[in-house]
């Protein structure tokens, strides 16, 4: 029993408490139960902590799940969890009705393209308790240098699971229309190949 009247049974008891209590796991587990499925067993492959090992950023599990509607077990698949992220589409409208959109380039060890970098929207996750909207603003500033001070400019688009065949996290997508001076600032950044990023481990162009 965990806390007040919180019982675990069957495969639940094999889930380490630090993972069991995480938002990522509970959202996945709720979906499992809502569809009538049962966690029969679980093997924890790895955990990833940050901030002096006080914050569980991500983990990988190999669950054995009873699929009630299919009357069978599903096992051996690995699921990678991480904190949910925010992304933001920053755009500038042109006089001809077209739009210029902001993407950032960043090296990722998994990259396999001719560019040698990932081309993506500004975005990421936060280790502090802030809203996804504020996190999107923070990520835009960290990765491009553009600071949005008026929350009314930020519009929510949608939330959806990313790489659902292997990963269990949600991307919350927002957008913002850039002002002329912000757009010109970004053009100058691009021209001079200026790098942004929170630290030496993260450089975006």
**Can you write the helix and strand succession as a string?**
HHEEEEEEEEEHEEEHEE
Structural class: alpha+beta
- State the shape: elongated
Number of strands: 14
Rg over CA atoms, rounded to whole Å, is: 20 Å
Average pLDDT number: 90
Low-confidence stretches: 1-5
Can you offer a commentary on this structure?
With 205 residues, this protein is of the alpha+beta class. The chain has 4 helices and 14 strands. It has helices at residues 17-20, 23-34, 132-144, 180-191, and strands at residues 38-50, 55-67, 72-74, 79-82, 85-93, 99-101, 104-106, 118-120, 123-124, 155-161, 167-168, 170-177, 196-199, 202-204. Strands 1, 2, 3, 4 and 11 form a 5-stranded mixed beta sheet that branches. The protein starts with 16 loop residues before the first helix and ends with a strand. The relative contact order is 0.14. Mean pLDDT is 90; it is low at 1-5.
Essential attributes:
205 residues; alpha+beta; 5-stranded mixed beta sheet; elongated; disordered N terminus
Summarize this structure briefly.
It contains four helices and 14 strands.
Sequence-ordered SSE layout with sheet pairings:
Elements (H helix, E strand, L loop, with lengths): L16 H4 L2 H12 L3 E13 L4 E13 L4 E3 L4 E4 L2 E9 L5 E3 L2 E3 L11 E3 L2 E2 L7 H13 L10 E7 L5 E2 L1 E8 L2 H12 L4 E4 L2 E3 L1
């Amino acid at each position: 029993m965990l806390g007040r009247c919180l019982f675990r049974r069957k495969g639940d008891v094999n889930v380490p408490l630090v993972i069991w209590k995480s938002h990522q796991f509970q959202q996945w587990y709720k979906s499992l139960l809502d569809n009538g499925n049962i966690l029969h067993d679980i093997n924890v492959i790895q955990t990833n902590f940050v901030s002096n090992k006080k914050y569980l950023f991500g983990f990988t599990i190999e669950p054995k799940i009873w699929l009630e509607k299919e009357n069978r077990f599903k096992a051996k698949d690995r699921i990678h969890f991480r904190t949910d992220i925010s992304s933001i589409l920053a755009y500038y409208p042109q006089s001809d009705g077209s739009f210029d959109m902001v993407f950032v380039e960043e090296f990722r060890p998994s990259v396999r393209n001719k560019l040698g970098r990932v081309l993506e929207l500004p975005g990421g996750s936060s280790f502090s308790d802030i809203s996804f909207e504020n996190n999107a603003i923070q990520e835009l500033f960290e990765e491009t240098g553009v600071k949005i001070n008026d929350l009314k400019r930020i519009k929510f688009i949608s939330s959806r699971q990313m790489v659902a065949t292997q990963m269990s996290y949600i991307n919350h997508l927002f957008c913002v229309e850039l002002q002329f001076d912000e757009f010109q600032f970004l053009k100058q950044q691009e021209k001079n190949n200026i790098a942004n990023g929170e630290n030496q481990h993260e450089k975006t162009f």
